[in-house]
Automatic annotation (TrEMBL):
Pfam families named among the record's database cross-references: Alpha-amylase
Species of origin: Pseudorhizobium banfieldiae
Protein name as catalogued: Malto-oligosyltrehalose synthase (TreY)
SUPFAM superfamilies in the record: (Trans)glycosidases (SSF51445)
Gene3D superfamilies recorded: Glycosidases, Maltooligosyl trehalose synthase, domain 2, Maltooligosyl trehalose synthase, domain 3, Maltooligosyl trehalose synthase, domain 4
A single MF term (Gene Ontology): (1,4)-alpha-D-glucan 1-alpha-D-glucosylmutase activity
Residue stretches spanning the membrane: none
One GO biological process term: trehalose biosynthetic process
Domain Glycosyl hydrolase family 13 catalytic: 6-709
Enzyme class: isomerase
E.C. number: 5.4.99.15
Alphabetized UniProt keyword annotations: Isomerase
InterPro entries (UniProt xref): GH, GH13_cat_dom, Maltooligo_trehalose_synth_4, Trehalose_TreY
Keyword Isomerase assigned: yes
Length: 842
């Protein structure tokens, strides 16, 4: 198997086409990239900005240039020696009439050849939850009519621009009569004869006949566990692999599948042993990918979490919490807040999924002819199990539950039984036995219950933690990231080293990401916000000062002030992360551009929090008041605040730039395959999507990639030129020494002396090569004390070089300077040219 030495994630659509990507290939080669890592490229719904709403898994999207465009891009990659990794979506497709499979199902119901392609409950009519109100209200308003579909000419029920095809048996032999139906009762009668029924989108969480992706009604679950469906959905992908045009696959949301291992085994058998496969999988604390999965690892969210152990000051953990509460008030503990979010999700957003499980459980228990368990008791026990799950899911199959899954299930049940919200024990014991798949529980209904339960715990965790709690708990936004925990341990450098050794052991070929299209903020925004942990009291004092300066912009509403204090804390922190390094407080145009981006974030943050407004039921008065506050912050007329904010922010900006370089160096050298998200080879100060999916300035990136000496002037740090050159230099090093980075030992090194706690260091080593990384951390204090060069601060600090790391000659990768350190290396000596070092044995 060819393992990438690095990947470059490119977001297609929004102007990025195959031909444009082909034009970037020479730049990627110069940067040192080994594989282009493409977002979904197959046909998606009209106007899709991401491609995960697939309409045809075997057609290259014409918007991107179609098959011919893809082949031109593929040829360009081959010509320059780069490989290609495709992001594929086996879990779901678009529930859209643009999807020919779905359209056929809508038209023909259970008689469709594709009826079993999707996870549909055919015990009732297919629900189409795309009306703005109930069917009766929409019909009464005259918004429904019978018309000939402009594409097919066949009769359809029209709702604005959508034409829902009538099943042939409902109009055959009387097509003209049907097309002339205009009265509401005629349309209603025709509707009643369809294998589908139209309903309000608001009813989807309670009454849906198909499995969806998370809570997105427009994405329907695909049954790739069926070999026929697997073949149909992967036909073109497998052809590309056989043709040698695709070298690797990224599997989207593997936990959504009925049987992830079964799918991956089938995929591996189809693509052969040489294709690189990684999976999008959120690992909980201490969790590892099952050893028998035939993949190289995850897409790397856990790597982001590990980096927090290096760049967050763990000694201020309690002080930061106190500082946050001094502004936000008496907030719930993370544990209680997560439980509250999960309960809300289970009772509302996933109400229908929970109800389906409850119905199955009651039916199975009744079949046992045992003492009846009341529905409410079963419901409570089921809900408590769902809420208590600490990771995304277990992986039980028709063959039973693996040992590690059973152990986890036993522990969760024990925690629920012994907790303060313990449900009825008989109901809990029944569900435990049902989920464990013990003897006697092998009916189709029991297997379906286990599958659906496992497919629900993941979305419930994701939507409760990442898309709810992380928009409610604003203590340190840098830690509110995909893959993080609700209540992370205090940061620990020792824990980071342990995690890297574990990473080398379990998934040395996994991707190491720091920015993705799904992260809550860009890597350099996160790196800057880490610095807040170094001065929590100073930050709290500043927030209180800014709140006072902007107090007149707060609006008193019946539900409380808008924004509330916790939201103000969040605003000042989020704005700190996204503030451009070159934005002056009097730059009117720059402030306006930032305001436009920030207001998008404000809307998303408020609605995802689901406290005073939501996507489904927005509170316009509240949102309007909070948006006005956010706009006031960035108004050029708010000069005194902007000057104070920008001056206060400057030390954090500079510390963030150092953190960003350290973060980049670690990613490039630590175990794993570094993934460069488009544009993040320079500064990535983005907010959550859609902000992080904006196209970077490729002209600046390509023209600014210079050869020669590493640029280390102040402006080079602030523009990202330094970071880009570091990436280029180390990526080429990785290409020249792949085994050093893939299989080389990971050796934590322990700096000693005056500034030891402000350094992170480790070595990668094989029998004939050694590479030492030394990088700064926790440097905010240096910038707050004054504008002294970092290199002046490292006197009386040494790096001991134990064992085989010492006694070698080294050269600095960036300057070529030679070092013969023997048993220890003076940090001031290593940092003469720049405040970091990467030393390769000569």
């Amino acid at each position: 198997m060819t393992i990438p030495t690095s990947t470059y994630r490119l977001q297609f659509r929004n102007g990025m086409t195959f031909d444009r990507a082909a034009g970037l290939v020479p730049y990627l080669q110069r940067l040192g990239i080994s594989h282009l890592y493409a977002s979904p490229i197959f046909s998606a719904t009209s106007g899709s900005t991401h491609g995960y709403d697939v309409t045809d898994a075997n057609e290259f999207d014409p918007v991107l240039g179609g098959r011919d465009g893809f082949l031109r891009m593929s040829d360009a990659l081959r010509e320059h020696g780069l490989g290609l990794i495709l992001d594929i979506v086996p879990n779901h497709m678009a529930a859209s009439l643009e999807n020919p499979w779905w359209r056929d199902v809508v038209e023909h119901g259970q008689e469709s050849r594709y009826a079993r392609y999707f996870d549909i409950d055919w015990s009732r009519r297919l629900t189409l939850p795309f009306l703005g109100d109930t069917f009766e209200e929409v019909l009464a308003k005259g918004d429904l009519s019978v018309k000939a579909d402009p594409q097919t000419g066949k009769p359809a029920i029209a709702y604005y621009e959508s034409f829902y095809p009538l099943t042939p048996s409902s109009y055959e032999g009387r097509e003209r009569e049907v097309l002339e139906a205009t009265r509401p009762d005629q349309i209603a009668a025709l509707h009643d004869h369809q294998p589908w029924r139209l309903m309000s989108w608001r009813d989807a969480p309670r009454d849906l006949s198909y499995r969806r992706f998370f809570e997105i009604t427009g994405l329907v679950g695909l049954r790739v566990e069926d070999p026929h469906v697997f073949e149909a959905a992967h036909r073109t992908v497998l052809d590309l692999v056989r043709e040698g045009r695709v070298d690797g696959l990224r599997i989207d949301h593997v936990d959504g599948l009925a049987d992830p291992k079964g799918y991956l085994d089938r995929l591996r058998a189809a693509v052969g042993p040489d294709v690189y496969i990684v999976i999008e999988k959120i690992l909980g604390e201490g969790e590892q990918i099952p050893q028998d999965w035939p993949v190289s690892g995850t897409t790397g969210y856990e790597f982001i979490t590990a980096l927090g152990n290096v760049l967050v000051d763990g000694s201020t953990h309690e002080a930061l919490t106190a500082a946050y509460r001094s502004v936000a008030g008496d907030v719930a503990t993370p544990e209680d807040a997560l439980r509250d979010a999960k309960l809300s999700m289970a009772n509302n957003n996933f109400e229908g999924e929970v109800a389906t499980l409850l119905k199955l459980a009651l039916k199975l228990h009744e079949a046992e002819d045992a003492t009846a368990i009341p529905s409410e008791a079963m419901h409570e026990a089921l809900r408590e199990l769902l809420v208590a799950f600490p990771v995304y899911r277990t992986y039980g199959t028709t063959d039973g539950m693996p040992a590690e899954g059973k152990a986890l299930l036993d522990r969760v049940v024990g925690d629920v039984r012994g907790g303060s919200h313990a449900p009825d024990d008989q109901a809990l014991a029944f569900l435990h036995r049902l989920l464990a798949g013990t003897e006697g529980d092998d009916s189709d209904e029991a297997r379906l219950f286990r599958t659906r339960f496992q497919q629900l715990t993941g979305p419930l965790m994701a939507k409760s933690l990442e898309d709810t709690l992380f928009f409610r708990n604003h203590r340190l936004l840098a830690l509110n990231e995909v893959g993080s925990e609700a209540d992370p341990h205090p940061a620990s450098l020792a824990r980071f080293h342990v995690e890297m050794k574990t990473r080398l052991q379990h998934q040395p070929d996994a991707l190491s990401g720091t920015s993705t299209h799904d992260t809550k903020r860009g890597e350099d925004a996160r790196a800057r916000l880490y610095a807040i942990s170094e001065a929590p009291d100073h930050w709290a004092e500043s927030v209180n000062r800014w709140r006072e300066m902007n107090r007149a912009a707060i609006r008193a509403l019946p539900g409380g002030p808008a924004p509330e204090p916790a939201t103000e804390w969040m605003f000042y922190q989020a704005l700190a992360g996204v503030w451009p390094t070159d934005l002056a407080s009097d730059d009117t145009d720059g402030l306006k551009a930032l305001e436009e981006r920030f207001l998008q974030y404000v809307e998303k943050a408020l609605r995802e929090a689901k406290q005073r407004t939501t996507w489904g039921d927005p509170d316009e008065a509240y949102e309007g008041a909070v948006r006005a506050y956010a706009s006031h912050l960035l108004s050029s007329k708010n000069r005194s605040f902007l000057e104070d904010y920008r001056a206060t922010l400057e030390p954090f900006v500079r510390a963030g730039l150092v953190n960003g370089v350290t973060q980049t160096l670690i990613k490039l050298v630590a175990p794993g395959v570094p993934d460069i998200y488009q544009g993040s080879e320079r500064l990535d100060l983005s907010l959550v999507d859609p902000d992080n999916r904006r196209e970077p300035d490729f002209d600046t990136l390509t023209t600014g990639l210079a050869e020669g000496r590493l640029p280390t002037e102040e402006e080079d740090w602030r523009s990202g030129r330094l970071k880009q050159q570091i990436v280029r230099r180390v990526l080429h090093l990785r290409r020249n020494h792949p085994l050093l980075f893939r299989t080389g030992d990971y050796l934590p090194l322990a700096p000693a002396g005056k500034r030891a706690e402000h350094l992170v260091s480790f070595a990668r080593q094989t029998e004939d090569k050694s590479l030492i990384l030394i990088a700064p951390r926790l440097v905010l204090g240096a910038f707050r004390e004054g504008d002294r060069p970092l290199s002046d601060r490292w006197q009386e600090t040494l790096l001991p070089l134990p064992g085989s790391v010492g006694g070698r000659a080294y050269r600095d990768v960036f300057t070529g300077r030679r070092f013969d350190p023997a048993e220890s290396l003076p940090i001031a000596w290593a940092f003469v040219d720049h405040p970091f070092a990467l030393l390769l044995s000569a």
